[in-house]
Amino acid sequence: MGTSASYRSPSTPRWSAFVSALAGEESLDRVRSEMFNAGNDWQDAIASDAVASFAATAERLFNEMPERLEGAASAAAAVGDILSDARAASQNVGFSPAAFVAERALARLILGNLAGATAASDATENWLANRGSTPGEAVARYLGEVLGQYARHVSDREAGRLAEREIGATASASLSNELAIRAQSLALEAYRPAATTDQSVAGRWGLLVSAAFEAGRVLPGRPR
Length: 224
Known about the structure:
The protein is mostly helical. The chain has helices at about 15-25, 30-40, 40-45, 50-70, 75-95, 100-115, 120-130, 135-155, 160-165, 170-185, 185-190, 200-215.
């Protein structure tokens, strides 16, 4: 499937520039910049109400997760119920082609905070230790996970094209991972200006996504 044209980037100049940078010897910063330059449709999809709904779940879980864990048979059962509820809430407010990325990002955020715990009591302890300082920070970290999933998706779907250029599977996976890490790091930069706002997640989510994509487009040393 990775080599099928239907699973590659759209045939547009901006996506072509991203693919060329990805498969060539461009710096990782150049690849990241081209990825965000090409991703206008992705920006709109990620900024949608459907994805903002997942972000609101991430914010609520900062305080609500211990209670969800206490009432569950296991940590895995709690996570399954949370993701099911988050998916339903997102679908209630609309559709986004980025919903699969949003749900995967929420799962990664939750599982990362639980740090492998299976018993509810251990999971609660890990959650409180790893959740961050504030609900707002939870939203910023969730945005980072979304951006990381976006980067992985658009780079991994070019795996076949990279193979054609004799870039091995290990190098391709490493490139995808490094690109995701770079994309993830943009979330905190986007969050800081909105850190003191009283707006709800729904009210500020689009601004956070826009700020992250703007930061992602900029090459180091160049003015915005």
